[in-house]
Design a protein that fits this description.
By secondary structure, this protein is mostly helical. The protein is about 55% helix and about 0% strand. Helix 1 runs antiparallel to helix 2 and helix 2 packs antiparallel against helix 3. The longest helix is centred in the middle third of the chain and has 23 residues. The radius of gyration is 18 Å and the shape is globular.
Length: about 110
C-alpha cells in the first residue's frame, strides 16, 4: 500500500481528520466569508451593468481584477485602492460608494 505524507496549509474550514492534526481553522471566520460574498455580489452586479452599457473592455478588466483581489485570503489594501481609483473616474457614483464600503469590511 502506498502511503504518502501530506499536510494542508493555510486557512481550512471544518474537521482536521486525515490531516495528521496540521490543519487549523484560525485564519478564516464566517464573518469574513460573508464579507467576501457581499463584495463578489456587488462586483457581479457592477460587471453586469457595465456589460449592458457596453463599457470599454479596460473598465470590465478592472472589475475582474478587483474580483480576483477580493477572493484572496488577505487582499491588499494598496492594490484594491489603486483599482478602485481606476474605476472612480468612470462615472459609477453610488455603486463605487457601496463597493468601497464592502471592501473596507475585508480589511
Amino acid at each position: 500500500m502506498n502511503e504518502r505524507k501530506f499536510e494542508i496549509q493555510g486557512p481550512v474550514i471544518g474537521s482536521n481528520v486525515g490531516t495528521s492534526g496540521h490543519a487549523r481553522t484560525g485564519d478564516v471566520h464566517i464573518g469574513h466569508i460573508k464579507d467576501v460574498a457581499a463584495v463578489l455580489r456587488l462586483l457581479d452586479e457592477l460587471r453586469e451593468d457595465l456589460n449592458t452599457a457596453q463599457a470599454p473592455t479596460s473598465t470590465i478588466e478592472v472589475v475582474d481584477d478587483l474580483r480576483v483581489e477580493a477572493r484572496k485570503p488577505n487582499p491588499s489594501k494598496d492594490v484594491t485602492t489603486h483599482l478602485m481609483d481606476k474605476l472612480a473616474d468612470r462615472g459609477l457614483g453610488e455603486q463605487m460608494k457601496d463597493l468601497a464600503k464592502a471592501f473596507d469590511a475585508l480589511f
